[in-house]
Amino acid sequence: MVAAAQPKQQRSGRAAPSILSADVVVVGNLTSGGDIQIDGTIEGDVRSISLTIGDKATINGEIVADDVVVRGRVIGSIHARRVQLCSNCHVEGNILHEALAVETGAYFEGNCRHSADPLGEDRGNSGGILGQDKKPAAGRPGGGILGSLGSNRSSLADAAGKEPAEEDGHSS
User: Fold this and answer.
1) Per-domain residue ranges for the chain?
2) What is the pLDDT of residues 85-106, one digit of tens each?
């Protein structure tokens, strides 16, 4: 008796990657047990085994994955075993990693910290990636990297003994 051939996907144990093309905009969180390639815009958190962020892609939220390759724009934290910041990427946020590679020309503003278990470290009430309180993802009311600038501006102005600047950039 001849056994039927199994599809290549089942033999290798890994499914084909999920691809979100450049015209896709997702408002909400993405979770995958496999690989994701994002070329569009995500307003929310992304969790997967492997994540590739394309040249024109934008993610506003937290990323948690084993492997992350960033070619596009990320506003939010990255928690991954392996992180690669490519030469044309733009990252604003903190990175918790086992291994980090940064190519010449990559833009990174934030803090990075090595961890033996970046996926297992508590990102909730223990103070986030570097002892800071966890905030909602950027782009959401009152939160994230960009959403916290207003409150920081006021506290910095108070510390300097000055009045905080008005929202339009002029001081009173």
Assistant:
1) 14-158
2) 999 999 999 999 999 999 999 9
